[in-house]
Design goal:
Helix 3 links the parallel strand 1 (37-41) and strand 2. The model is unreliable at 247-256 (pLDDT under 50). By secondary structure, this protein is an alpha/beta fold. The chain is globular, with a radius of gyration of 18 Å. The protein has helices at 9-18, 23-33, 47-54, 68-77, 113-126, 205-214; strands spanning 37-41, 60-65, 82-85, 97-102, 127-138, 154-157, 163-170, 178-187, 194-201, 218-223, 238-244. The strands form two sheets. It has a seven-stranded mixed beta sheet, with helices on both faces. A four-stranded antiparallel beta sheet has the order 6-7-8-9, with no helix packed on it. It has two domains: 9-139 and 203-244, Vaccinia Virus protein VP39 (Rossmann fold); 142-201. It is 25% helix and 30% strand.
Length: 256
C-alpha cells in the first residue's frame, strides 16, 4: 500500500520492492494476456505490462501514469511498451483498446464524483465497443484502515543493502468515505525518514455501480477476492469490478 504518485525518483526505484508481485497481479495478468490491445491506467513502474510482455504478449500494451519518476523505471525496463505521461486530460484515444485496467487500488485516489466521471469518460472513449474496464477498490465494510497503525512495521530488503521500514498511520478521524493517512519510510539510504500523506476514498459497490451506469458502463462480473470468489458486501475485502462499455450488452462473464 505504497503511494503510487511517487514524484521522488529514489522512492520510485523502490516501488516494486515495496509492492512485490502477488495474487492481484496474477489476476490482472490473465486478463491482459487474453486481450490484444490493453491500456493500463496508473501503470506506475509498468510491472504488469512488463510481465505481460515477458510472458509473450505480442499485441499493443500502453501504460498511462501522471508520475514521471515512475515512468522512468517503466521505460528503462521495457522500451517496447508504449509509456504515456499524463492522464485523460492530456491523452486521448478513440476505441483503440479491448481492455483497460486500473490496479493497485488506484481508483481510490479519485476523491470526488467528478474525478471519477472524468476518468470513466476517458476510459469509455478509449475502449472499443464491448471493451472492458477492470479495477478494484477496497470494501469499506472491511475497514482496512484500522490495520494502518504505526506499530505494524513492514520491512523489505533494500536493493542496495540493508532494510527499509514502512509504517502507516491514519490521520485524524475518518470523514465520510475518505481516509487520510501517512506513510513513513526509514532506512540507511535515507538521511531522515521520508513521510508522504495520502487520502483514499472508500466507495460502496452500489456507489461504484451508479457512477459506472451514468458513464455508460454495465457491470458484468464482480468478485470479492483475487481467486474470483463471490463478492459478499459484509465480508469481502475487495470489490473487484468488471464493466463493459455498452449498456445493453448481455451479462456474459467470460473474462480472461
Amino acid at each position: 500500500m505504497v503511494d503510487r504518485s511517487f514524484a521522488d525518483l529514489e522512492l520510485a526505484r523502490l516501488y516494486d520492492a515495496l509492492n512485490p508481485w502477488g495474487p492481484s497481479d496474477d489476476f490482472y495478468l490473465g486478463l491482459v494476456m487474453s486481450a490484444p490491445a490493453v491500456l493500463d491506467i496508473g501503470c506506475g513502474t509498468g510491472r504488469l505490462l512488463r510481465g505481460a510482455r515477458a510472458a509473450g504478449h505480442t499485441g499493443r500494451l500502453t501504460g498511462l501514469d501522471p508520475a514521471a519518476a515512475m515512468l522512468v523505471q517503466a521505460r528503462t525496463a521495457a522500451p517496447d511498451v508504449e509509456w504515456v505521461l499524463g492522464d485523460f486530460e492530456s491523452s486521448r484515444w478513440s476505441a483503440e483498446f479491448g481492455l483497460a485496467v486500473m490496479t493497485g487500488h488506484a481508483f481510490q485516489e479519485l476523491l470526488g464524483d467528478e474525478d471519477v466521471r472524468r476518468l470513466l469518460a476517458g476510459v469509455r472513449q478509449a475502449l472499443a465497443p464491448r471493451g472492458r474496464f477492470v479495477f478494484e477498490t477496497r470494501n469499506p465494510a472491511a475497514r482496512a484502515w484500522q490495520e494502518w497503525t504505526p506499530d505494524r512495521v513492514h520491512e523489505i530488503a533494500d536493493p542496495d543493502g540493508g532494510e527499509i521500514e514502512v509504517r502507516h498511520e491514519v490521520v485524524g478521524p475518518v470523514r465520510g468515505d475518505r481516509v487520510t493517512f501517512t506513510e513513513t519510510f526509514a532506512g540507511a539510504r535515507f538521511e531522515r525518514a521520508r513521510v508522504s500523506r495520502s487520502t483514499l476514498r472508500f466507495l460502496t459497490a452500489s456507489a461504484v455501480d451508479a457512477l459506472l451506469g451514468d458513464a455508460g458502463f454495465r457491470v458484468v462480473a464482480r468478485y470479492g477476492d483475487w481467486g474470483r470468489g463471490a463478492y459478499d458486501p459484509g465480508v469481502s475485502r475487495e470489490i473487484v469490478t468488471v464493466a463493459v462499455a455498452e449498456v445493453d450488452v448481455e451479462a456474459d462473464v467470460g473474462v480472461g
